[in-house]
Design goal:
Layout lengths: L7 H24 L8 E5 L7 H4 L7 E5 L3 H10 L6 E4 L11 E7 L7 H14 E12 L3 H13 L2 E11 L3 E10 L6
The structure holds S-adenosylmethionine.
């Protein structure tokens, strides 16, 4: 999956944003995740672990799975989270995820980057790996209107229900759409 690896410049700029804006960008999002301490959580497209860094602490009895299609990002994520023991690192693609496994799945600036045809596989796979009653939390740039509509259509077709949605102006990133979907019933295969 080397074709998905970032350049050194991209990694440097992301680390810089994390160091300078970690709290207003990534911690603010992590603080809004519906976590009580014992959940099994998936960070889909974790990158260098910008959000995971702030989500791991509030999970003292839970488990955070950091998944990325890029081995280079996943290695960077391992370094960011080296102080935590409650993390699993996964280098695989969404369709390989086990069903009914997570209480919370979050995607932070990931889905808008995925092609429309790939989203048709990724979103149903995420919905399937969510437990009944679980939550899918997304934050994507508002300007990606076409992708946002496709994501909404696919989540709802996959049996998820939109519970909350708001526009938030984020430092460096501009207006973003944050959406929370829940899984009310089993998703048929
Ligand atoms: C813009 S970065 C965001 C990283 C992190 N969530 C953040 O906000 O800092 C997008 C990430 O999604 C990953 N990604 C893209 N397509 C993916 C896929 N199909 N499956 C898993 N990860 C993917 C990329 O490798 C990259 O790490």
């Amino acid at each position: 999956m080397m074709g998905h690896d970032p350049t050194r410049l991209e990694m440097f700029l992301t680390r810089l944003a994390f160091l300078l804006y970690g709290k207003p960008i990534y911690k603010a999002f992590a603080d809004r995740l519906p976590l009580h301490g014992g959940e099994r959580v998936l960070d889909f497209g974790c990158g260098m672990g910008t959000v995971a860094y702030y989500a791991a602490g509030p999970l003292p009895h839970g488990q955070l799975t950091c998944l990325d299609i890029s081995g280079r990002w996943l290695n960077a994520c391992r370094r960011t989270l080296r102080g935590y023991r409650n993390i699993i690192f996964l280098h695989l693609e969404a369709p390989a995820l086990p069903p009914d496994s997570f209480d919370v799945i979050f995607c932070h600036f990931v889905l808008h980057d995925i092609s429309a045809s790939e989203l048709e596989r990724v979103v149903p796979a995420l919905a399937k790996s969510l437990k009944t009653g679980g939550a899918l939390v997304l934050r994507e740039p508002l300007e990606e209107m076409e992708k946002l509509s496709a994501i909404k259509r696919l989540t709802e077709q996959s049996g998820l229900v939109l519970k909350d949605s708001r526009i938030i102006d984020v430092s460096l990133m501009g207006n973003t759409l944050e959406s929370v979907y829940t899984k009310a019933t089993e998703v048929s295969s």
